[in-house]
Amino acid sequence: MLDRDYGRSPHPPxxxxxxxxxxxxxxxxxxSVGDRVTRSGGNWGVSxxxxxxxxxxxxxxxAVG
Length: 65
Fold this sequence. Notes:
Number of helices: 3
Distance between the termini: 66 Å
Shape: rod-shaped
Oligomer: single chain
């Protein structure tokens, strides 16, 4: 490929090096995984709620069957 194809960066648009990924995420307004987990606490509430529903359904099926 020609240098002009990459524009101002020596890396291709699909480069996954740390620097390119951080710049791409910054432009997209994304936060790192660590920031999402520590700020929001993850999705534990949803996961526990879903597990509880599954347990209740299984208990009902076993009680009826």
